[in-house]
C-alpha cells in the first residue's frame, strides 16, 4: 500500500508538502553554508570555542557575583540595637551641625580674605 499524501489527496503521489520540505532543507543548507564561509562568522565561532571566551565569561560572572553581593549587603537591614541606632542618629545630627558651621565659617573666611585684599590694595595706592 502506498503512503497517503495529505496535500495531493492521492496515494503515492509526491505533493506540495514534499517539495516545500526539500526547498526548505536546501535553502537552509545554503544559508548555513553562506554563514560558515563568512570570515567574521568563522572568527566569532573560533572565539566562542576558545579559552579567551571562557576566561572572559568567567571574569564577567565573578564580577557580576561581586556586584550582586555588594548590592545585597548595602540594602540588607543592619542588625543594630535600639541604643546603637539612637547613638548613630545623635552622631549624624551632630555631624550635620558641624558641617553647617564649617560651611558658614568658610563663607566668612572668604569674605574676610576679600576685605583683606581690598584693604591691601587701598594701602598700596597710598
Low-confidence stretches: 1-5
What is the H/E string? HHHH
Could you tell me the mean pLDDT?
82
The end-to-end span amounts to 126 Å
Q: Topology, pairings included?
A:
Blueprint: H1 16-37, H2 39-49, H3 51-75, H4 82-125
Offer a few descriptive terms.
elongated; mainly alpha
Report what the structure shows.
The protein is mainly α. The chain folds into two domains: 15-76, no CATH class; 81-126. It is 81% helix and 0% strand. The protein is built from four helices and no strands. It has helices at 16-37, 39-49, 51-75, 82-125. The termini are far apart.
Short description:
This protein is mainly α and 126 residues long. The chain has helices at 16-37, 39-49, 51-75, 82-125.
Amino acid at each position: 500500500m502506498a503512503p497517503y499524501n495529505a496535500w495531493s489527496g492521492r496515494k503515492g503521489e509526491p505533493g506540495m508538502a514534499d517539495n516545500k520540505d526539500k526547498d526548505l532543507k536546501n535553502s537552509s543548507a545554503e544559508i548555513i553554508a553562506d554563514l560558515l564561509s563568512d570570515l567574521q562568522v568563522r572568527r566569532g565561532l573560533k572565539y566562542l570555542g576558545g579559552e579567551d571566551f571562557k576566561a572572559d565569561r568567567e571574569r564577567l560572572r565573578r564580577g557580576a557575583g561581586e556586584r550582586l553581593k555588594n548590592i545585597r549587603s548595602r540594602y540588607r537591614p543592619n542588625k543594630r540595637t535600639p541604643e546603637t541606632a539612637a547613638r548613630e542618629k545623635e552622631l549624624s545630627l551632630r555631624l550635620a551641625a558641624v558641617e553647617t558651621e564649617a560651611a558658614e565659617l568658610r563663607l566668612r573666611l572668604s569674605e574676610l580674605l576679600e576685605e583683606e585684599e581690598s584693604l591691601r590694595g587701598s594701602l598700596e595706592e597710598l
